């Protein structure tokens, strides 16, 4: 019966984790003085590139489909992949530690920019700040997953017997 609980708890925990990290990333993009302009400029450039590409072809359907697919892949890579990977590994090794879920997800999410470009060059201060925001985004996802499902991972803790020999009193 335990496997059935885990079969429900893990996807539910991941859905909560991804949603909370998405909301945190939006909030950080609004509040942070470095992340805000970066996200705003990226969205602005992306929007104008999409408009330019759709106006330059006769049938804009495939261009819009490809743009949406690329945006979905980017969001899945940043928000879905790290907590899912950490959750699956946590389930396999049976750990219940908050440090594993929040720390592992945070480090993996923060490392994504360096992993994506192959870590070829030294990062500037703005890039480090954005990576720190991604670390916090991943840590939020890991923490929420741990609250929802990670605390129940692994084998059941041993329980004290309900009945048994009673100590002889004086």
Describe this structure in words.
This protein has 170 residues and is mostly helical. It has a domain at 2-36 and 79-152. Helix content is 75%, strand content 0%. The chain contains five helices and no strands. Helix 1 crosses helix 3.
Q: In a few lines, what is going on in this structure?
A:
The chain has 170 residues and is mostly helical.
List the helices and strands and how they pair.
Elements: H1 2-31, H2 35-55, H3 61-93, H4 98-117, H5 125-148
Beta-strand segment tally: 0
Q: What share of residues is helical?
A: over 70%
Mean pLDDT over all positions = 84
What's the gyration radius in Å?
A: 22 Å
Overall outline: elongated
The biggest beta sheet is recorded as: none
* Poorly predicted spans: none
Secondary-structure-based class equals mainly alpha
Element order: H for helix, E for strand = HHHHH
Oligomer: single chain
Distance between the termini: 44 Å
Strand content: under 5%
Characteristics:
170 residues; 5 helices; elongated
């Amino acid at each position: 019966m335990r496997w059935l609980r885990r079969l429900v708890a893990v996807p539910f925990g991941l859905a909560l984790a991804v949603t909370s990290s998405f909301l945190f990333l939006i909030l950080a993009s609004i509040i942070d003085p470095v992340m805000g302009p970066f996200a705003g400029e990226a969205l602005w450039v992306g929007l104008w590139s999409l408009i330019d590409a759709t106006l330059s072809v006769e049938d804009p359907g495939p261009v819009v489909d490809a743009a949406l697919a690329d945006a979905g892949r980017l969001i899945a890579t940043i928000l879905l992949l790290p907590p899912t990977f950490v959750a699956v590994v946590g389930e396999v090794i049976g750990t219940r530690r908050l440090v594993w879920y929040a720390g592992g997800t945070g480090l993996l999410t923060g490392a994504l920019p360096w992993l994506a470009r192959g870590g070829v060059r030294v990062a500037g201060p703005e890039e480090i700040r954005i990576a720190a925001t991604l670390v916090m985004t991943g840590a939020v996802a890991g923490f929420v997953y741990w609250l929802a499902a990670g605390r129940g991972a692994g084998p059941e803790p041993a329980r004290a017997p309900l009945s048994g020999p009673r100590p002889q009193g004086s």
